[in-house]
Design brief:
Chain B: It catalyses: a quinone + NADH + 5 H(+)(in) = a quinol + NAD(+) + 4 H(+)(out). The structure holds two protein chains of two kinds. By secondary structure, chain A is mainly α. Helix content of chain A is 70%, strand content 3%. Helices cover 76% and strands 2% of the residues of chain B. In chain B, the strands form two sheets. In chain B, strands 3-4-5 form a three-stranded mixed sheet. Chain B has a two-stranded antiparallel ribbon with strand order 1-2.
């Protein structure tokens, strides 16, 4: 058994470091194109290693291994990895999706001159993300948390010459920093109380903490702080605004980072530290998750950018996961994380393929509309004909996101809403939570239906010409684009997670997804999935009906809604404007004020000190000139005189030394003599 | 008249003792080899001498490490003349490494490259001093101790004059005269001690002493004389006056050697004598003098005198001489400690001190080669001309001052912690004074240590400076000296694990 653990540890380290090392060495390759192959290969090996661990080696025992790092006083931090079902399957997920995305990127980014940077960032990101997955220690996790943030920043701002991309990267960074402030504060409190940041030790400490503990207020607050970290990373209200802007990055990177894995880091962290959220913090988490799910779904309704719709849907789905984690069911959260990771990564890759195709059109067709934008759905339409695999795959994954039966999304979303329902039995206004989640799933169906119809159905709106036919995107030429989508679409069906398409076996599933297994399975009332499905169908049909009724055949700037209510959706509830008008200028004003304080007060004090020092310097100068120098001159005079006396003796100085030493020793001996 | 049985006992004793001194034989053999090689082909191929010396030391190093791995408890050999234990083996490893470093920086120094004079003598003397130092560390008997000490001293007198100019000879002469004086005092002290205790061993005097650990004036006087001789060796006030003159006059690499090898040996000797004879606890009743107080006050004076004198120095080498006096004062504080933490603090300090000092002297050699002088004011504008050297020097100086994030800080921090523990343990105010003076002196130290970087970076040179370059080997050497200074700040456990394996109780 021990030996088995050892092998697993070694493999984990290999799978962890290989992407990083290959990413770094990719920078130095002579032929930059090869860096793509190198990193893709590295990620594939990493996936292979993780799947070997997952399917063959791992025997179900918790493995905590590592080396001590810092031992200063009470601060003991060790670099430990914590391998159990949850982390191994998460690592497998991360490396698997990263592999698919990197293969996809090789085609998508083929004309990019800085492709080697892109792939090294990808390798670096995978390394950092796996760091979060394996960390046993909150401190270590925080280190990788920041590295992941850095990787995300680098990839959002990948086209840094574009002002909007640079700005989006900055925004993501700042928003995450706000959350990280909470994370750090939480860690500080935990360390002050428990003198330990190891998650497993903290878990047992929490078990022994009674509600009468004198520090209970701080302990609860620590949970809130750590949750703030998750709010930043998983784009929860009110820090959600960075994620839609993050779509400025390359689309495959968005698929990996801003849809499937990194934003899920918050949820994963919550599932690892689920014991931390006690008292009112868990209610707070549920409320935040619910609000996020609703407003993000609402904002998605009127977006025209294909990636923005997906971005908002990501935020909304993350809200679901956060709700599940808040209700104490880390299993449901992780389940939804997994299904979501597959279909959302697939949707993004599909969007990437569509954008790739639209860019091709931009270069090959003439007389395109004036405001053409490759990502704008208003210029699409009729794309079902370009590639059947893309169409079918995208449809399956859309169905999965809308939680239509026979999809994986149906299983996990049902599980989440079911746990919200159980939570609602706690009374008060808690029934609002499942109700809002159900409404949100209707909205989800609406905006996804709208997207699906706008992109694939109808006729092409690219040209004002009914006989215009779109060229096809052949599978054989674009294998690297189509295959990852096909694989992810297959994984979005119900089969990988449960044999029964209507209900998943939660006990076995959750035990392999969470660090703290749940043993009780609740059965949902039948009306719950039924209602969800009905709402979904209503949403879908409303979207499709609305669009068919308008019969738009050619894209034009008037193709936007003027209704104030829907305008609210298009402008994302004016969150950005709110921040730009209130908090941003406020912060800048505060900064200016502090600058003034610095200039006037602090500098003033410094000037005063300087002047004081100069005055003292002048005084000491006078003293030195007449007093010290006088003494020095006196000493010199005396030495001179002594020198004259001793000069007669040859090498007089050494005798003087000896005399001086003897006198001193006698002095030392007799100084205590009484 | 010896009986046959007695002889066989002696032979048995010798046979038992011989295997524990492999390091020493290796060094003796290498000294002989160097002399012979110098006679045969030293003039044509001086590199051979370098190689012979280095090889000898490396073999000795391996022998020491081998002993370190095998020797468990302390072994008294040659009728208790010599005691081999893990502490002494650890130090002999350090001493040999220090000598190797000396040989390395010698090869960088200009005069040696050009003059080709006395190289055979130089290396044999270097090895001889190392041999004496190792025996000093291992000695458990005053005769052995005196012999070893004189081996070191004689070698040092000779090697100090290796600049072969008027100043060098003058410095060496001063060294001889002062050294002879100190040796004489010490020898007189040893003979008095023999008269009182009828033994040359390092016996525990607290058992002989009367009630209240009091000893009479004669014995106390003998002890003070012995300690004075050691004070000379490790340059503690008031026997430190020779240091700046000699250090300034000697070639820089030899200055580096002097500031490390004989000094460490002397310090460990001091530690062994103080510890094994229980000198810390004794009081000379007739002049009401506690010996630990006297040692403490000597350390305090050393710190004050050395640091305040260092501020006024114009020459980099003289400044480093005072700096080495000051560090001896700090290490003296560790010797006074009552707990085993003192030993650990001392060993840690010694280790870091070796790294820092060799680094600084190496850079001084480079700067000396470039500017042709060791005056601090001549280093103006070197910050631009020698960026690598300047940066490394700043790091080393910060470490010498004892500021984070360097291991110099860790060493001082552990030292002061020990002193504070002692104060809490014994309640004697001497420890509090040591702590306060030590802290205050660290502030003073900042002024003179950072003076060299100040001149290098903030003063422009009059003419244009030729850039000072390092070859790969020198860079590696510099990196080897400076990296541990950072590493051991962040991860002092690496060194402490080694030091902790030395059992304090079995010394």
């Amino acid at each position: 058994m021990k030996q088995n653990d050892f092998i697993i540890n070694i493999l984990i380290i290999c799978g962890w470091l290989i992407p990083l090392l290959c990413g770094i060495s990719g920078i130095f390759l002579k032929n930059r194109k090869n860096s793509g192959l190198l990193v893709s290969g590295a990620l594939a090996i990493s996936t292979l290693i993780h799947s070997v661990i997952f399917f063959f080696l791992y025997k179900g025992n918790e493995i905590i291994a590592g080396i001590p790092w810092l031992n200063i006083g009470k601060l003991n931090i060790s670099l430990d990895i914590w391998a159990n079902d949850a982390s191994i399957s998460m690592a497998l997920l991360v490396s698997f999706i990263a592999t698919l995305v990197s293969f996809f990127s090789r085609k998508y980014m083929e004309d990019e001159p800085r492709i080697h940077h892109y792939f090294s960032f990808l390798g670096f990101f995978t390394f950092a993300m796996l760091g979060i997955v394996w960390s046993e220690n909150l401190f270590l996790m925080f280190v990788f948390w920041e590295l992941v943030g850095l990787a995300s920043y680098l990839l959002i701002g990948f086209w840094y010459t574009k002002p909007s991309a640079a700005k989006a990267g900055l925004k993501a960074f700042v928003m995450n920093r706000i959350g990280d402030f909470g994370f750090m504060a939480g860690m500080g409190i935990l360390f002050a109380i428990f003198h330990d940041l190891s998650i497993t030790n903290l878990a047992s400490d929490y078990l022994n903490t009674s509600p009468e503990n004198e520090n209970i207020f701080w302990i609860i607050l620590a949970g809130l702080g750590i949750f703030m970290g998750a709010m930043g990373k998983s784009a929860q209200f009110p820090l959600q605004v960075w994620l839609p802007d993050a779509m400025e990055g390359p689309t495959p990177a968005s698929a990996l980072i801003h849809a499937a894995t990194m934003v899920a880091a918050g949820v994963y962290m919550l599932s690892r530290t689920v014991f931390l959220y006690i008292g009112w913090v868990s209610d707070f988490i549920v409320i935040i998750g619910t609000i996020t799910a609703l407003i993000a779904a609402f904002s998605a309704i009127k977006q025209n950018d294909i990636k923005k719709v997906l971005a908002f849907s990501t935020i909304s789905q993350l809200g679901y996961m956060i709700v599940a984690a808040g209700t104490g069911s880390a299993g449901a959260a992780m389940f939804h994380l997994f299904t979501h990771a597959f279909f959302k990564a697939g949707l993004f890759l599909g969007a990437g393929a569509i954008i790739y195709y639209m860019h091709q059109r931009e270069h090959s067709e003439s007389d395109l509309p004036k405001y053409f934008d490759a990502q704008d759905m208003r210029f699409m339409g009729g794309l079902r004909k370009i590639n059947p695999i893309l169409f079918v795959g995208y449809t399956i994954m859309t169905a999965s996101l809308c939680a239509i039966p026979f999809s994986s999304g149906f299983l996990s979303k049902e599980s989440v809403i079911k746990h919200a329902l159980i939570y609602a039995q706690g009374g008060d206004f808690r029934f609002l939570v499942p109700a809002i989640l159900l409404i949100t799933s209707g909205l989800t169906a609406f905006y996804m239906g709208r997207q699906w119809y706008l992109v694939f159905m109808g006729k092409s709106r690219l040209k004002n010409n009914t006989s215009f036919k779109l060229q096809s995107l052949s599978t054989s030429d674009n294998k690297q684009l189509i295959f990852p989508i096909a694989i992810l679409a297959l994984l979005s069906l119900w089969i990988p997670f449960s044999i029964n398409p209507f209900h998943a076996n939660e006990i076995s599933l959750f035990s392999s997804l969470t660090s703290y297994p749940q043993n009780i399975e609740y059965s949902a009332p039948t009306w719950l999935p039924a209602t969800a499905v009905i709402l979904t169908i209503i949403g879908l049909s409303a979207a499709i009906y609305g669009l068919t009724r308008r019969r738009i055949s050619y894209a034009s700037p008037t193709f936007t809604s003027k209704t104030p209510f829907l305008k609210l959706s298009r402008e994302q509830l004016y969150f950005n404007d709110f921040y730009n008008l209130s908090i941003v200028p406020g912060t800048i004003k505060l900064g200016r004020f502090l600058e003034k304080v610095d200039m006037k007060v602090i500098d003033g004090i410094l000037h005063a000190i300087t002047i004081g020092t100069v005055i003292i310097g002048q005084i000491t100068k006078v003293i030195e000139k007449y007093f010290i120098d006088g003494m020095v001159r006196m000493v010199a005079y005396i030495s001179g005189v002594t020198g004259k006396i001793t000069r007669q003796m040859q090498g007089g100085r050494i005798q003087l030394y000896i005399l001086y030493a003897v006198i001193s020793i006698v002095f030392l001996m007799l100084m205590f003599y009484r | 008249m010896l009986l046959a049985a007695d002889i066989s006992v002696y032979i048995d004793e010798i046979i038992r003792s011989l295997p524990l001194l492999t390091t020493e034989y290796t060094l003796v053999l290498s000294i002989i080899a160097i002399i012979v090689m110098d006679l045969l082909f030293g003039k044509e191929n001086p590199q051979l001498l370098y190689m012979a010396a280095t090889t000898g030391l490396l073999v000795a190093l391996i022998a020491s490490i081998n002993d370190w791995n095998t020797v468990e408890g302390p072994q008294n050999i040659f009728e208790n003349m010599i005691r081999v234990n893990r502490l002494s083996l650890f130090l002999s490893i350090l001493l040999i490494i220090a000598t190797l470093l000396t040989i390395l920086i010698t090869s960088f120094e200009k005069p040696f490259k050009e003059e080709k004079k006395g190289e055979g003598e130089y290396f044999s003397l270097l090895t001889l001093i190392t041999l004496g130092s190792i025996l000093m560390v291992k000695a458990n008997h005053f005769l052995m101790f005196f012999l070893a000490l004189e081996t070191v001293s004689m070698g040092s007198y000779l090697i100090a004059g290796f600049k072969f100019d008027r100043k060098g000879s003058e410095g060496a002469m001063k060294y001889v005269l002062f050294g002879a004086f100190a040796s004489a005092i010490m020898l007189y002290g040893i003979s008095l001690l023999y008269g009182y205790t009828n033994s040359f061993g390092f016996i525990d005097l607290t058992e002989i002493a009367a009630q209240g650990r009091q000893i009479d004036f004669g014995l106390g006087f003998a002890l003070i004389m012995i300690i004075s001789g050691l004070f000379f060796k490790i340059s503690i006030f008031p026997f430190h006056v020779w240091v700046p003159d000699v250090y300034k006059a000697a070639p820089t690499s030899i200055t580096a050697f002097f500031s490390i090898v004989p000094k460490i040996a002397g310090l460990m000797m001091m530690f062994n004598i103080v510890n094994r004879m229980g000198i810390n606890d004794l009081e000379i009743s007739s002049i009401s003098l506690h010996l630990d107080e006297m040692l403490g006050i000597a350390a305090i004076f050393t710190l004050i005198v050395a640091n305040f004198s260092a501020i006024w120095q114009k020459s980099g080498k003289r400044m480093m001489a005072y700096s080495s006096i000051s560090h001896a004062g700090f290490m003296m504080i560790a010797i006074l400690s009552l707990t085993e933490m003192g030993l650990y603090a001392l060993l840690f300090y010694i280790f870091i001190y070796i790294l820092m000092n060799y680094g600084v002297f190496f850079i001084l050699i480079k700067l000396e080669n470039a500017t042709g002088s060791d005056e601090i004011s001549d280093f103006k504008g070197m910050g631009k001309a020698a960026p690598v050297a300047s940066t490394a020097l700043v790091i080393l100086m910060i470490s010498l001052t004892g500021l984070p994030p360097t291991a110099g800080f860790t060493a001082k921090f552990i030292l002061f912690t020990t002193v504070w523990e002692n104060f809490e343990l014994s309640g004697q105010y001497i420890y509090l004074f040591l702590l306060l003076i030590g802290l205050g002196i660290s502030v003073v130290a900042l002024f003179y240590y950072l003076r060299i970087p100040y001149f290098m970076y903030f003063k422009e040179s009059e003419g244009k400076r030729e850039p000072v370059t390092f070859n790969l080997f020198e860079l590696i050497f510099l990196l080897f000296l400076t990296t541990p200074i950072f590493l051991l700040f962040f991860q002092p456990d690496w060194l402490f694990d080694v030091i902790n394996s030395i059992n304090f109780a079995s010394n």
